[in-house]
C-alpha cells in the first residue's frame, strides 16, 4: 500500500538540508507521496529506508514495455479506477491475431496491413501496435518461419507469441528475442517451462487461468520462478466476463494492494461479426485492458477503436492543443487569404480540413487560447481583440503577405470593430459561423 507523506517523513533523515530542492524533509515527503519527486534526490537517506520506500512506492500495477524502440508500448502503471479521478496514463495496445498456417503471401499481406495502419487524428499518430502470431500449424519449424516473416514485414510492431507449446515457443522466442516479444501463455501445466524461457531471454510472460483465484495463484508461482513482467489473461471472452474480471482485477490491485493481480491485462475479443468484435474491443479498452487482440483490422474498425482509446487516454483536465503559429494549407502565396482560429486541436483539424477541402491555398493563424474552442476562449477572455492583434503583429505575417485582411470566425463577429481599431490599416472580414461553410466561402471569394 502507498505510504502517506507523514509515514515517508519518518523514514527520511529529517535534517532539512535542502539538497533535494525542497525547503524541508516534510515538504519532500509530501511530494514523494504525491508522485511529484524522486527518492534519489535525497543523498542522505539510509539503505534500509530506500528499500522500504522503494517497495512502498512501487506502482500498484507493474509497468513494462511491449516491444522495443520508439514504437514500444508501455503497459500497466495505472493508478485510478476512473479517468476523472486523475487520468489514465498508458493507452492499451491494439493487436491483430495471425495464424501461422497461412501462406507466405497471406502472412506478408497481413503484416503489411499492420505496418500501413497508422493514421493521424487530432494531431496524434495512431496505429495497430502489435501482431499476435498463433501456433495453429502444429509444426515448430513452420511457426518459427511465420514469426520471422511477420517480424520482418512489420518491423515496428510488437510481437505476441501465441503458443502454449514450450518447445515451439522457445524456438520462436530465440528468433525474435531482440524484439522482446510477449510470450503467451503460461498455464498451471506448462508454468515451469514457460517461466524458464521468459527468464532466460528476458521477455514478458502472460499468465492464463480460468478465474481470478486460479490466476493469482499462477502469478505467485511465476514470480517465485523469477518472472516479474507478467500479463494477465483471466479467460474472459464475453463482454460480461471482460467487464467483471477486468474490474475485479483493477480494484484488487488499486484498492486492496493485492500484488498477485497487480499486472496489465490482455483480452482476446475474436468475433465472427466485425461490428460485434469492435463493440467488445471498445468495452475492453474502456474497462482496463492493456492489450486487446482482434481477429481483423478493417480501417473503419481501426478508426473507431483509435478514437475510443484516444478519448479515454487524454488528460480530462488539459484540453488537447496544437502549436501556436501560422499554418500554410495547400501551398499558399502572398495573396492567399488569412484566417484565424484557436489552438484547440479539434477546432484546428476541423477548420484546416475544411480549408483543404476548398482547394483554395490559404493561411491559418492558430492562436494559443490554452486549448479552448473559439466561443469558450472568447468568453474566458483568451480570444480577444487585443490578444489577436498582438499575436498577428508578433507573428511576422505582415512581411509574408501582400494584403492586410484577416478573416475571423463568424461566432465572434462582435470582435470585428475592436480588431480594426487594434490592427491599424487592416480589414477585418467576418467568416462563416460553422466550419462546413468554409469551402463555399473561400471558393466564392476566389471566383
CATH class division of the largest domain: Alpha Beta
Number of separate domains:
3
Low-confidence stretches: none
Q: Radius of gyration in whole Å, from Cα? A: 27 Å
Overall pLDDT, averaged? Answer: 93
Q: How far is it from the N-terminal to the C-terminal residue, by CA?
A: 68 Å
Number of helices: 16
The count of β-strands is 17
Fold and architecture overview:
The protein has 3 domains: 5-57, Electron transport complex subunit B, putative Fe-S cluster (3-methyladenine DNA Glycosylase II, Chain A, domain 3, Orthogonal Bundle), CATH 1.10.15.40; 64-312, Dihydropteroate synthase-like (TIM Barrel), CATH 3.20.20.20; 325-446, 3-Layer(aba) Sandwich (Rossmann fold). The chain contains 16 helices and 17 strands. The protein has 447 residues and is α/β, with parallel strands linked by helices. The mean pLDDT is 93. The chain is globular, with a radius of gyration of 27 Å.
Care to give the gist of this entry?
The chain contains 16 helices and 17 strands. It is of the alpha/beta class and 447 residues long.
Name a few traits of the molecule:
single chain, alpha/beta, 3-methyladenine DNA Glycosylase II, Chain A, domain 3, Rossmann fold, 3 domains, eight-stranded parallel beta sheet, three-stranded mixed beta sheet, globular
List the helices and strands and how they pair.
Blueprint lengths: L4 H5 L15 H9 L13 H11 L6 E3 L6 E3 L17 E7 L4 H12 L3 E3 L2 E3 L3 E5 L5 H14 L4 E5 L3 H11 L5 E5 L4 H11 L3 E4 L3 H13 L5 E4 L5 H16 L11 E3 L5 H13 L4 E4 L4 H14 L12 E5 L8 E5 L2 H14 L3 E6 L6 H6 L5 H11 L9 E4 L7 H7 L4 E4 L7 H9 L1
Parallel strand pairs: 3-6, 3-12, 6-7, 7-8, 8-9, 9-10, 11-12, 14-15, 16-17
Antiparallel strand pairs: 1-2, 4-5, 13-15
Helix pairs in contact: 4-5, 5-6, 6-7, 10-11, 12-16, 14-15
Amino acid at each position: 500500500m502507498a505510504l502517506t507523506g507523514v509515514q515517508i517523513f519518518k523514514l527520511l533523515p529529517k535534517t532539512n538540508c535542502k539538497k533535494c530542492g525542497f525547503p524541508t524533509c516534510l515538504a519532500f515527503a509530501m511530494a514523494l507521496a504525491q508522485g511529484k519527486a524522486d527518492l534519489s534526490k535525497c543523498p542522505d537517506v539510509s539503505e534500509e529506508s530506500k528499500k522500504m520506500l522503494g517497495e512502498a512506492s512501487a506502482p500498484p500495477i507493474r509497468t513494462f514495455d511491449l516491444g522495443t524502440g520508439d514504437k514500444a508500448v508501455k503497459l500497466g502503471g495505472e493508478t485510478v479506477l476512473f479517468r476523472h479521478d486523475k487520468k489514465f496514463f498508458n493507452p492499451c495496445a491494439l493487436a491483430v491475431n495471425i495464424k501461422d498456417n497461412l501462406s507466405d503471401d497471406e502472412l506478408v499481406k497481413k503484416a503489411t496491413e499492420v505496418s500501413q495502419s497508422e493514421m493521424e487524428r487530432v494531431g496524434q499518430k495512431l496505429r495497430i501496435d502489435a501482431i499476435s502470431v498463433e501456433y495453429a500449424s502444429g509444426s515448430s519449424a513452420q511457426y518459427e518461419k511465420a514469426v520471422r516473416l511477420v517480424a520482418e514485414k512489420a518491423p515496428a510492431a510488437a510481437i505476441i507469441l501465441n503458443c502454449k507449446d514450450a518447445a515451439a515457443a522457445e524456438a520462436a522466442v530465440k528468433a525474435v528475442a531482440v524484439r522482446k516479444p510477449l510470450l503467451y501463455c503460461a498455464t498451471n501445466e506448462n508454468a515451469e517451462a514457460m517461466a524458464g524461457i521468459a527468464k532466460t531471454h528476458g521477455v514478458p510472460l502472460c499468465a492464463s487461468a480460468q478465474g481470478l483465484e486460479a490466476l493469482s495463484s499462477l502469478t505467485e508461482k511465476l514470480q517465485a520462478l523469477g518472472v516479474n513482467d507478467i500479463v494477465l489473461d483471466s479467460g474472459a471472452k464475453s463482454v460480461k466476463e471482460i467487464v467483471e474480471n477486468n474490474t475485479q482485477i483493477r480494484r484488487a490491485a488499486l484498492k486492496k494492494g493485492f500484488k498477485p493481480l497487480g499486472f496489465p491485462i490482455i483480452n482476446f475479443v475474436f468475433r465472427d461479426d466485425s461490428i460485434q468484435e469492435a463493440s467488445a474491443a471498445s468495452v475492453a479498452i474502456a474497462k482496463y485492458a492493456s492489450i486487446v487482440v482482434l481477429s481483423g483490422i478493417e480501417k473503419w474498425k481501426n478508426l473507431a477503436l483509435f478514437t475510443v482509446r484516444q478519448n479515454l487516454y487524454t488528460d480530462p483536465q488539459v484540453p488537447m492543443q496544437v502549436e501556436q503559429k501560422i499554418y500554410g494549407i495547400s501551398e499558399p502565396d502572398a495573396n492567399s487569404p488569412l484566417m484565424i482560429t484557436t489552438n484547440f486541436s479539434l477546432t484546428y483539424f476541423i477548420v484546416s480540413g475544411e480549408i483543404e477541402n476548398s482547394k483554395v491555398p490559404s493561411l491559418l493563424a492558430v492562436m494559443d487560447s490554452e486549448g479552448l474552442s473559439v466561443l469558450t476562449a472568447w468568453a474566458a477572455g483568451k480570444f480577444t481583440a487585443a490578444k489577436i492583434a498582438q499575436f498577428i503583429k508578433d507573428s511576422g505575417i505582415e512581411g509574408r503577405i501582400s494584403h492586410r485582411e484577416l478573416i475571423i470566425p463568424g461566432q465572434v463577429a462582435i470582435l470585428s470593430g475592436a480588431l480594426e481599431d487594434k490592427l491599424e490599416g487592416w480589414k477585418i472580414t467576418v467568416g462563416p459561423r460553422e466550419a462546413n461553410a468554409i469551402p463555399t466561402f473561400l471558393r466564392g471569394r476566389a471566383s
